[in-house]
Write a structure and sequence with these properties.
heterotrimer; A mainly alpha (104); B mainly alpha (694); C mainly alpha (209); B: mainly alpha; Cytochrome C Oxidase, Chain A; 21 helices; C: 209 residues; mainly alpha; Four Helix Bundle (Hemerythrin (Met), subunit A); 6 helices; 80% helix; elongated
Chain lengths: 104, 694, 209
């Protein structure tokens, strides 16, 4: 265990403030894209998705304190869950859209 | 709206719904059988209550068992549930085989409705209320001991999971007497199971009993995974755990992630039925194909939840009764993990024929074939464990060897089915029925029976009668082949599943053979019961107090039989795989510890039984639309949780002096025990101190 | 004083309460696993919604017809602020010895969360008045189930908060109470993450598509 300096109130407080600010900005950006109809249609959807992913990362890093420094078990769990989510959601959407084309 | 808006005290329940009333009003053979089944249940319960009263067992039942949060007791109770439900479901299987063996150009003895309920309860019970509790109980009992822990991470949650599953099982049993069960199969596909085509209470029984147990399983998965990650003894790294713990870990991961799609699918079906939603309806934007998708997102990992613990048992049994370290430990671990991950990539193979394009089918077909590879690796590892081993053909080992041969056959038919064009020909035929029974019977059931034979002496302190075990083994083995091999042939001849009457005379011979096989399977079960009764009667000559009757290799064999409440007087320090064998070879197995500490154990709690009873009330009330009882059940369950959180005295201390006294007394007893040679293993000379061979 | 390792997700109590910090590891890990299972639940609801919102409108109202973007924006602000205030509550739990700061931030979080639920109920009410009921189409069934499941989770969190406020009074800042508050924190932040997906993939996509 390394002898680094201890987390202080100030550091933890900063974490929440930065996280909150970033989240606010990303939210405002996302809503703004739609309300002011910025970007062509398809690109707008991609941008929204990217903003959502960015905001999720912000939440994980600044509110949930999950980072590469976290306990290995916790990181493993998050990564494995992401894999499962990808398989289930991706698979379902692919299958249902394929079925809709052919069967409905 | 589809739900009656009357607020009568008993919802939509009427006297006509009692099965004995129906038998009286409509005295045909099918109803007699139904009434007889209900009678067996009621009389059985009365007999149990009478016995408890006669032997003054109510206090023990409540204070030592029902309120216990000890993983060993919870594990045993799970297995008791499994055995009771196995009795019912196996009789249902025999009854269906009988109907099919006589119903060629003949209506037989069962009405189509009754037959529909039978195959629905048979499947639902076998999977959710027999196999799942059996494996959960087995992992519960053994895994914490194998990793050198005192209990699971969340003992009360463990008990709650047990009670949720028991509540689901109770609902299914209640459906035998009050009302009817679903006729939609264990998969309950809408629109047939939607409110339009199944307006009665049957599907609701299915929905709520399954929902209760699936929540229990999710919580169990969380519990087991946390235990394995965080509760291991010092020195017990993940790669020093016994294989059974690896399979328990992967099973838990599957439980955690796979139950959610089922919860959603059943919830959506419930919303369609109770509130007129349109998830799976024919009209207004419903998509019944999504049900199949969601159900099998759960369903495929589910069958791996069932088989992985059995694989774990086989690893333990084969290595112990070959007298060798398991061959290829690392490859077995990698194979187990691969199976766990791949199991989430194949679910579409359950509905190849639903209408997707060929590309989609092809990808999933290839993934399905791939998943056979790690299983094949495991089979080779087990075989190589036996090579040059000193093999003892105990009952557990016999089941394991039969598994190796028979399961592979089933796996091969699985690879055949993985091919979409082939599947188009045999989907939902008896070929499919033969395939999956070929996986679950030699796989899951034989694994669980082997585990039961193997670990029974540890749990209860005396050995089971090998003779009856072997008789049971031959019946199960021959019974399996006789029952299901004809079904492969019938499937290729065009016979479909879930069929109450046939019109092709060439089926008859095969069906009759299959029925004889079913009677043999049932005999196998009866012999297990006889084995238990005989062994209990002879228990004094069969005792193995020293705790190691088989020359076991892992830590669960290092304590007494039965083990103390806290498993280990002193938590062991582990230095390698096969931890107990290591200790025995170093001569440290029964050394007195240098120091003893106080041991803190959780107190018993009424919270779990209260939640269980509340769950039964909630489920029953939802089925019969008794809304006031729904509210009461819900409030009871959550009220118990919240009330419990205000209790601060949840543990008690066992003083170090008591631990020392009990442990030293046992160690003294062990040191006075004669070691048992292999030849004496099945005699009364075996007191639980097996000879350690070089 | 040495820095304590990060033993679990969420704010670690390492530097101020070593005993609770050690006790927390398996307890928080177990809850973290449960949250992952919950995420899968939501993911399935999203996947179903993705197909039904496009394929299941059945000639009924479409997303643009029924989604109220300004209302969704206000709800987002309420929930996001409540996450920040819960962060402040977590800091009070870790660094302040008294109950006052902690209770203040918890009560504030509760109010913001209750405001969120209130607005969501209002949204649903207005939709039903327009005939956009879940029984109208597959799309609406999927929408209501997804958003209401999130709402029910938030409501459960609110109940949990009330129970915790009572427990703080009755039991004090014991290790058990701290661990429960830490789990509630994880729960609350996770629900905000789910909401990010809802406002993006349901509301914004719905209007933009």
């Amino acid at each position: 265990m390394t002898d680094e300096h201890v987390e202080t109130y100030a550091q933890d407080f900063k974490s929440y403030c930065i996280g909150g600010l970033l989240a606010l900005m990303l939210t405002a950006l996302a809503f703004g894209l739609v309300i002011f109809e910025i970007l062509p249609h398809f690109e707008r959807l991609i941008a929204l998705a990217i903003l959502a992913v960015a905001q999720i990362v912000v939440h994980f890093r600044y509110f949930l304190h999950i980072s590469w420094r976290s306990h290995r078990d916790d990181l493993q769990l998050v990564l494995f869950t992401s894999l499962i989510l990808f398989l289930m959601v991706g698979g379902t959407i692919w299958i249902l859209f394929n079925l809709h084309e052919r069967m409905m | 709206m589809t739900v009656e808006s009357s607020f009568s005290l008993l919802g939509r329940l009427t006297p006509q719904d009692i099965s004995f009333v129906q038998t009286f009003e409509n005295p045909v053979m099918s109803e007699f059988i139904d009434g007889a089944a209900g009678s067996v249940l009621v009389i059985g319960m009365i007999i149990v209550a009478a016995l408890l009263t006669y032997y003054r067992g109510w206090k023990t039942l409540w204070f030592d068992w029902l309120t216990s949060v000890d993983h060993k007791k919870v594990g045993i109770m799970y297995i008791v549930v499994a055995f009771v439900m196995l009795a019912r479901a196996i009789i249902e299987g025999v009854l269906m085989r009988y109907q099919q063996s006589i119903a060629v150009n003949d209506p037989g003895v069962l009405t189509p409705d009754h037959f529909g309920q039978l195959f629905s309860t048979h499947g639902s019970i076998m999977i959710f209320f027999m196999a799942m509790p059996f494996i959960t109980g087995m992992i519960n009992y053994i895994m914490p001991q194998q990793i050198g822990a005192r209990d699971v991470s969340f003992p009360l949650l463990n008990a709650i999971s047990l009670w949720l599953t028991a509540a689901g099982a109770a609902l299914v049993m209640i459906s035998l007497v009050v009302g009817k069960f679903s006729t939609g199969g264990w998969t309950a596909y809408p629109p047939y199971t939607g409110i339009e085509f199944s307006p009665g209470e049957g599907v609701d029984y299915w929905i709520w009993s399954i929902s209760l147990t699936s929540i229990g399983s999710t919580l169990t998965g969380v519990n087991f995974a946390t235990t394995i990650y965080k509760n291991r003894a010092p020195g017990m790294t993940l790669f020093r755990m016994p294989l059974f713990c690896w399979t328990s870990l992967c099973t838990s991961v599957l439980m955690i992630f796979a139950m959610a799609p089922l919860t959603i699918a059943t919830l959506m079906l419930a919303l369609d039925r109770y509130a007129g939603f349109h998830f799976f309806t024919n009209d207004l934007g419903g998509n019944m194909m999504n049900y199949a998708n969601l159900f099998w997102l759960f369903g495929h990992p589910e069958v791996y939840i069932l088989i992985l613990p059995a694989f774990g048992v086989f690893s333990e049994v084969i290595s112990t009764f070959s007298g060798k370290t398991i061959y290829g430990y690392k490859s077995l671990v990698v194979a187990t993990m691969s199976i766990a991950v791949l199991s989430f990539t194949v679910w579409l193979h359950h509905f190849f024929t639903m209408g997707q394009g060929a590309n989609v089918n092809a990808i999933f077909g290839i993934a399905t074939m791939l998943i056979g590879v790690p299983t094949g690796v495991k089979v080779y590892d087990w075989l190589l464990t036996m090579v040059r081993g000193r093999i003892r053909l105990t009952t557990a080992m016999l089941f394991s060897i039969m598994f190796l041969v028979t399961f592979v056959i089933g796996g091969l038919t699985g690879v055949i089915l993985a091919n979409p064009p082939v599947d188009f020909a045999v989907h939902n035929s008896l070929f499919l029925v033969a395939h999956f029974h070929n996986m679950v019977i030699p796989g899951v059931l034989f694994g669980m029976i082997a585990g039961y034979q193997f670990w029974f002496p540890k749990a209860f302190g005396f050995r089971l009668a090998e003779r009856w075990g072997k008789a049971s083994f031959w019946c199960w083995s021959f019974g399996f082949y006789l029952t299901f091999m004809p079904l492969y042939v019938l499937g290729l001849m065009g016979a479909m599943r879930r069929t109450v009457e046939w019109f092709r005379p060439e089926y008859l011979g095969w069906l009759q053979v299959s029925f004889v096989g079913a009677l043999l399977l049932f005999s196998g079960f009866i012999f297990l019961c006889v084995q238990l009764i005989v062994s209990v009667r002879q228990r004094d000559q069969r005792r193995v107090p020293a705790g190691d009757p088989w020359d076991g290799r892992s830590l669960e064999w290092s304590n007494s039989a039965p083990p103390p409440e806290y498993n280990f007087a002193v938590i062991p320090e582990v230095s390698g795989q096969d931890a107990f064998t290591r200790l025995k070879e170093q001569g440290k197995a029964y050394a007195s510890p240098t120091a003893y500490d106080d041991i803190v154990v959780p107190k018993n709690s009424i919270v779990a039984p209260v939640i269980g009873v509340g769950a039964i009330a909630l489920g029953f009330a939802l089925v019969w639309h008794i809304w006031w009882l729904v509210a009461l059940g819900f409030v009871t369950m959550w009220g118990a949780v919240i009330a419990r959180s205000f209790v601060t005295e949840t543990e008690r201390v066992i003083p170090a002096s008591k631990v020392r006294a009990d442990h030293e007394a046992w160690l003294q007893q062990v040191r006075e025990c004669a070691t048992t040679s292999r030849e004496q293993e099945d005699t009364s000379a075996n007191v639980g101190r097996a000879e350690v061979l070089a | 004083m040495k820095r304590q390792p990060l033993l679990h997700p969420g704010l670690n109590l390492g530097s101020t309460d070593e005993y609770s910090h050690d006790e927390a590891e398996p307890v928080i890990f177990g809850f973290w696993i449960f949250l992952m299972a919950d995420l899968v639940l939501f993911a399935i609801l999203f996947a179903t919604y993705a197909s039904m919102s496009v394929q299941g409108q059945a000639g009924g109202p479409s997303p643009t017809d029924v989604f109220d973007l300004p209302s969704a924006f206000i709800e987002t602000m309420l929930l996001l602020s409540s996450s920040i205030t819960f962060g402040m509550a977590s800091l009070a739990l870790k660094y302040k010895a008294d109950r006052l700061h902690l209770v203040f931030w918890l009560v504030l979080t509760f109010c913001l969360g209750a405001g969120f639920i209130g607005m969501e109920v209002r949204d649903f009410w207005i939709m039903t008045q327009q005939g956009a009921v879940p029984q109208r189409s597959g799309f609406l069934s999927a929408f209501y189930l997804l958003v209401a499941t999130h709402g029910i989770h938030v409501s459960a969190g609110l109940c949990w908060m009330i129970v915790m406020l009572v427990q703080l009074r009755v039991l004090g800042r014991t290790t058990e109470v701290k661990l429960r508050l830490m789990r509630l924190a994880l729960f609350w932040h996770m629900l905000d993450i789910v909401w990010v997906c809802i406002f993006t993939f349901v509301y914004l996509f719905g209007v933009a598509l």
